[in-house]
TrEMBL record:
InterPro entries: Peptide/Ni-bd, SBP_5, SBP_5_dom. Residues 1-21 form the signal peptide. CDD domains: PBP2_NikA_DppA_OppA_like_7. Gene3D superfamilies: Dipeptide-binding Protein, Domain 1, Dipeptide-binding Protein, Domain 3, Periplasmic binding protein-like II. It comes from the Bacteria. Residues 71-486 form the Solute-binding protein family domain. This is Peptide/nickel transport system substrate-binding protein. It holds the Pfam family SBP_bac_5. Coiled coil: none annotated. Keywords: Signal.
Length: 566
């Protein structure tokens, strides 16, 4: 193991800049393992890229502090919804400049959202913007009904105000605009470096054509508090933008380094050569970081991920064994029986998983929705580990045939995932102890192979999760519980009541009414048990104690402009 170069030396070597030291009050040093795929907001769809883009650009609006329901102005000073939630009008902030020195105008905002609709591809997050503004998640190459006239109508400047016109009400629309990928770019600058010029004449040539290495990725230009000075494959150097419209950042320089080895990052952090580093998991970080001199630790933060063991209700050939209920396999529709699914949820030892995998830092949710999101119902019933009830349900399932014949099925987990392996082994142990005729074979599988077989409906039992694209309940409930949702479709889960409740919530703009529908959904899902809900982890962060001002919003990157070094 070699000793890491100090950030000061590395900055000087790679960037040709004056030495930067983490000990300086003016400098923040960040180390992480991932590369930076892109700095173009229109195609960024990963946390690493978005975390840097959020420092250089601004959205129209954002969230207040840690809230996911209280909105506050950013590049828009106020907004209003009319026509039953189908028209949104934004008044824009005056006297704002881009890093290039150009003034921010309504034309830039109009161009930004049209560019996102035009260049929308499967690699970007703009599918959910297109879904709101065009009624489809596809681009003009894949959906021939999309025309320039429709794009123009969807977003346009009227008397200096930005106006969005939706084909139907979308209660999640404002949440989508908070997403970092919807930051505002400069039209004239973008065209000058070879990006789309924003005209009808050229739009067709840019449909779905944007790549991570775009000109705007190499030369970003935002209105945000920091601007990029230099970058190479391992290092990005940012400085505070002197023309920023908001309060000037206390920290004037930020050095973001790519450091692959966890031990190297840990050494730099403990020496004080880095202020913030990527961790190595709770067990390792608690042992090596918590309680050490100069280290601040924040625990009990809410998780925005949701995980479940999925029970496929129409299993395709490949993992059926005999394909019969004879103890040597399972029939394709094995999990169609609600009593069987309820038995599986009652047989999972939730407390054991929290102890073994989450080191006691976990809790059960009532539904597959983060508890910080509006719409989550803490009062809904939740499954509990109850071997006696599980036994009764197994005896009832399939008219008693499951209990007398037994079953054998294979459950795969992503190779290398301790969480998935632990969850499936906890389930296996509990179920096999109920009846010796029950057998679950837990086996690893490469991630690409697991995704491929799951997508084809060949996995009987598999653990999968979801992270939010935007902070609205629909992003989770539609994904998991709707028959056309991402996982609902995989599972062959089709419940007319669930679909009706979700469809109603998608078109209801009154929060109280939406939340009431989600309460009904939570109770319906509890009785139908399409999933085994995996306990959520209470998350944590650690950082150098001389850095203060951290605000941990569940869905937004930490804003460097809020930080202060003592």
């Amino acid at each position: 193991m070699h000793r890491a170069l100090s950030p000061a030396l590395l900055a000087g070597l790679l960037l040709g800049s004056p030495a930067l030291a983490a000990s300086s009050k003016d400098t923040l040093v960040i180390q992480a393992s991932a590369d930076v795929p892109t700095l173009d907001p229109a195609i960024a769809y990963d946390t690493t890229s978005l975390g840097l883009i959020a420092q250089m650009y601004d959205t129209l609006l954002t969230y207040e502090g840690t809230s996911l329901s209280r909105l506050k102005p950013m590049l828009a000073t106020r907004w209003a919804a009319t026509d039953g939630g189908r028209r949104f009008t934004f008044t824009l902030r005056p006297n704002v400049k881009f890093h290039s020195g150009a003034p921010f105008t309504c034309a830039d905002a109009e161009y930004t959202f049209r560019r996102n609709l035009v260049t929308n591809s499967s690699e970007s997050s703009n599918w959910f913007l297109a879904e709101s503004l065009l009624g489809t998640s596809r681009n003009a190459n894949d959906d021939k009904t999309i025309t320039w006239a429709r794009i123009q109508k969807a977003v346009q400047c009227t008397n200096g105000q930005l106006v969005f016109t939706l084909p139907k009400a979308d209660p999640a629309f404002l949440s989508k605009l908070v997403y970092t990928g919807q930051v505002i770019v400069n039209r004239a600058y973008s065209a000058s470096i070879g990006e789309w010029d924003g005209t009808e004449k050229t739009w067709k040539a840019w449909v779905g054509k944007l790549t991570p290495g775009s000109a705007l990725s190499r030369k970003p230009n935002g209105t945000g508090p920091y601007q990029l000075v230099r970058a190479d494959a391992t290092t990005h150097l940012f400085t505070a933008f002197s023309g920023y419209w908001g309060n000037p950042p206390a920290i004037k320089q930020v050095l973001r380094q790519r450091v692959a080895e966890p031990a190297t990052r840990q050494q730099a952090f403990l020496r004080g050569d880095a202020d913030l580093i990527e961790g190595s998991g709770r067990a390792a970080d608690e042992a090596q970081m918590r309680g050490r001199p100069g280290v601040s630790w924040t625990d009990g933060l809410p998780s925005t991920q949701a995980w479940a063991i999925l029970m496929n209700q129409q299993i395709k050939p490949g993992a059926l064994g005999s394909g019969k209920l004879d103890g040597k396999g399972v029939p394709p529709d094995f999990f169609k029986d609600a009593s069987l699914r309820q038995a599986f949820t009652a047989a999972f030892n939730y407390g054991q998983y929290i102890r073994d995998q989450l080191k006691g830092q976990g809790f059960q949710r009532t539904m597959l929705l983060p508890e910080t999101f509006p719409g989550y119902d803490p009062s809904a019933p939740k499954a509990t580990y109850d071997p006696k009830r599980a036994t009764e349900l197994f005896r009832k399932a399939w008219g008693g045939k499951v209990w007398t014949s037994g079953f054998t099925l294979t459950a795969h987990y992503r190779a290398g995932s301790a969480a998935q392996q632990t969850a499936l082994e906890v389930l296996k142990s509990s179920i096999e102890s109920i009846n010796p005729k029950f057998r679950i074979n837990v086996q690893p599988k490469p991630w690409s192979d697991l995704l491929s077989s799951d997508n084809r409906g060949r996995e009987p039992l598999v653990m999968m999760g979801w992270s939010p694209d935007y902070a609205d309940a629909d992003n989770f409930v539609y994904t998991f519980y709707h028959s056309k949702g991402y996982y609902g479709d995989w599972l062959n889960w089709n419940d007319a009541t669930a679909d009706r409740l979700i469809d109603q919530a998608r078109s209801t703009v009154t929060p109280a009414q939406r939340n009431g529908l989600y309460r009904q959904l939570a109770r319906r899902a509890y009785t139908q048990a399409p999933f085994i809900l995996i306990p959520a982890e209470r998350e944590y962060r650690f950082y150098r104690s001389e850095v203060t001002g951290w605000v941990f919003n569940p869905v937004l990157p930490v804003a460097w402009k809020d930080l202060v070094k003592r």
